[in-house]
Amino acid sequence: MLIMRYNGxxxxxxxxxxxxxxxxxxxxxDFYFDCDFFNQTYSRPYQINxxxxxxxxxxxxxxxxxxxxxxxxxxxFFGLHIYRENDFNWEKRFEYIQNNTYIYGFxxxxxxxxxxxxxxxxxxxxxxxxxxxxxxxxxxxEDSISLHIRRGDYIQKRRYASVYNHLDFDYYSKALExxxxxxxxxxxxxxxxxxxxxxxxxxxxxxxxxxEKSARVEFxxxxxxxxxxxxxxxxxxxxxxxxxxxxxxxxxxxxxSNPEKIVIAPGKWFQRIENNPDDLYPNDWVLI
Length: 288
Prior knowledge:
There is one protein chain. Helices cover about 35% and strands about 15% of the residues. The chain contains 11 helices and 11 strands. The strands form 2 sheets. It has a 6-stranded parallel beta sheet with strand order 8-7-6-9-10-11, sandwiched between helices. Strands 2-1-5-4-3 form a 5-stranded mixed beta sheet, with helices on one face. The longest helix is centred in the N-terminal third of the chain and has 18 residues, at about 10-25. The radius of gyration is 20 Å and the shape is elongated.
C-alpha cells in the first residue's frame, strides 16, 4: 500500500495522483490519499473527482500525527516508511520507494508519470455543457492555439510574487510567432484568472505572423468558480498550446491528444535560476 498526501490546487493534485498511481502500478500494489489538506480553511478544494469517482481516502489519527510531526521524523513512523520530496526536480530515489510508504511532495515532472496509464485515469467524467461543447467543436476544426496567462496569486501574494517568474508579452510573442508560422489560419484561445486585465493590456498585434495571417483571438471567460476546471478541458482540445508556469496549463498541454501538437513552455519557471527544473517538461516540448 502507498499513501500520498494531497496538497495544492487541481494541477498539483494531478501530479501527486499521477506519481503515486504510476508507482503503485509498477509495484503491483494499492494506493490511497491522505486528504486532510482539504479540511484546512486555507486549502484549495479537492478536484480529482472531475476524473475519479473513487476518492481513495485513508483516515486515521496516525496520519494526522505523522503530518503534524513530519519535521521531527526520520524515515519510519509506526510501521510506515516515509518519503519526503527534497527537490523540485525528478528524484531517482523515488523509483526505489518500498511498499507501505507515506509520501509527500509535489512531484512535478513527466518522469514520474506512466503516460499511457495516467491518460486512462485522467478522462473527464462529465460531458461538457452546450457552450463548451460548441467551443470544442470549433477548436477541432481550426488551427486552434491555447494561450494561458496566470496572474492571480502570482501577482497578489507576496510569497508567490517573489518566487515565480513573471512572464511578460515577450515570452508570449515569441511563442505565438513560432506557432503562427507553422499553421495556416491561427485562432488564439486565451485563458486567464484575470481575463479582463489581459483584454486591456496584451497587444496580440505584437505578433507579426499573427497579423499577417489575420489571427482571430477568442477570450475564454465563462468557466468560473466550481466550473473553472473546464478551462483545462478546453486547453486540451486545442491543437497546440502555449502554457504559463502553471501546473494547470501544464496539464492542459499534457492531456492534448493531438499527435502533431506543439506545446510551448517557459524555460524559466522560478525567478531564481538555480531553482528551475530540468525534468518538468516532456522532451518534445519547446522551451522559451
